[in-house]
Amino acid sequence: MDGRNKKFILELQKKPKVRRESGLYTVDGPKMAGELDPGDVENVYVTKSFLASQHFKECEELLRSVRYELVQDSEMKQMSDTVTPQGILVVARQKRVRGIRAMAEGVKDPLFLILETIQDPGNLGTIFRTAEAAGVTGIIMNNETVDAWSPKVVRSTMGAVLRMPFTAVDDLNEAVTKLASGAFTEGNKVNIYAAHLDGAVDYAAADLKGASAIMIGNESRGLSDELSGRADKKILIPMCGRTESLNAAVAAAVICFEAARQRRIN
Amino acid sequence: MDGRNKKFILELQKKPKVRRESGLYTVDGPKMAGELDPGDVENVYVTKSFLASQHFKECEELLRSVRYELVQDSEMKQMSDTVTPQGILVVARQKRVRGIRAMAEGVKDPLFLILETIQDPGNLGTIFRTAEAAGVTGIIMNNETVDAWSPKVVRSTMGAVLRMPFTAVDDLNEAVTKLASGAFTEGNKVNIYAAHLDGAVDYAAADLKGASAIMIGNESRGLSDELSGRADKKILIPMCGRTESLNAAVAAAVICFEAARQRRIN
Prior knowledge:
homodimer
C-alpha cells in the first residue's frame, strides 16, 4: 500500500476533524469487523498471519464479501493506533446519524440519554454498551462530548456504536427544550431528569416509565447550570460513605437500569 | 534522595510482590494524599513547584504533621509511574486488612461483594468507589484479582480503597461456603447471589434486603462454574439489544444499587 494511505489511516484514528470531514472511521480487530455491514466498508487491511489464525473465522463472512489488501505485520503496526494490532483494520463509513425524531419513531415511551461534555473515551464507550443493554431509545450529546467514532470509543462500545442510535448536536440546550415540549415525539411531552448531586428527588422514586430523558454531565464538573435548569426534576442517586460522586458511566447505568426495571416490573 | 530509594519506589508501583512483601504502597497526587492517616505515612516526596502551587492546600494538613523530602521535578518524573506526576508522592503502609468477621461486626444485614479474578485495575477501582457509595459492607476477592494497592487501582477508587473494608483470600470457594453458613455473621445465614448470564432470576426480583452477597466474575469469562455453583440463586440483569454482557463494574453497580434501593425504599 502507498504511503499516503497509511498516513491518512493514522490521521483517521487520531484526528476527529479528519473523521468528521471524511465521514469515515476505523475498526480494529476481527470481532467488531465481523459486525460491520459490508455496504459500509471502504477498505480492509489484513496480515497474512491473521488469515492463518483462528480469529479469521470471526470475520470470515465479511472477508468473503469485500475486497481486502494484504499488508506486512510491520505495516499494520505503523497503521494501527493500538499497541498490539489484531491483524485486521477496516476503514468504514460512519453510520448515517438519524435525527432525534427518527430515533423516537414508533417507540411508545422513548427513553433518551442526554450527555453533556463526556470526556473519557472509555466512559463514552461503556455508556453506549450499557445504554443498548438497558433499552435506551437514543443518545443525544453535545459536540463537546468526545467523538463517538474515535478508535477508543468504538472499541469500548463492544459493537454498540453500530447499533445504538445517537446524534451529536450543536446546541444541546435547544435540543432539550424541544425534546421536552414533544417537538420530536409527535406532541408526546418528554420528562427531563437531570442526574445531579444537589437533586431533591431520589432517582428510584422518579417515574421513569413514561417518555423520559436522563441527563448526565461531565466527569468532573457534572451538568452545566444552564442545561440542568431545563430539567423537570433534578434526581439524586443517594450515596453512603464519603464518595463525592459516581463515575459518569456508573451513574448513567444505575439510572437507565432503574428505568428498565420500572418498565419491566412495575 | 539516594538511588536505592528511587528504585524501590518504582518497584513498589510496578510489582505486586514488592507491595505484598513490604506491606507498603504509593499514593500519587495531593487529593488522595490529603486523605491519608498521618500514622500510616512512611515517606513523602514533594517538588518545590508543588509546594508553591494551589494544590498544596489539598494536603496541607498532612504536610504539617509529617516530615517530607524535597525532590527535583526530574527526580519526581523518574519516581512516579504516571506520565504527568502531580508533585507529591507518598509511600504509605497498607491499611491492615480486617477479616470477614470483623467487616460484618455490628452490621444487621450485611451486603458483601465477592469478586472473582477481576483483571482490569480501572474496573476494580470503579467497583470500590461504587461499592462504598452503594453501602456495601465489605469486598471479598480472590488472590487472582488485580492487587487493590496497585497505583492504577488506588487512583481510580478516588479514595475508597482507604475507606472500604476488603480482603483478598486464598480460597474464595471456601470463604463463600463459610459465609453462606453464617460462620462470619454469628450464625446469620448470608444469601449468595451469582451475577450470571444464564441466571434464572431477575436481579430486581431477588430479595437483597437480608444478609446478602453478590458475586461478580472475570471481565471476559464471568464466574467460574465452581464458584457460581455455590450460589443460592443465579441472578440475571435482563438486557435489550444485542449486547452480550455488561462491563463488570457496571454489572456490580446495577446490582449493588438495586440492593441499596430495596433497603431504602421497600
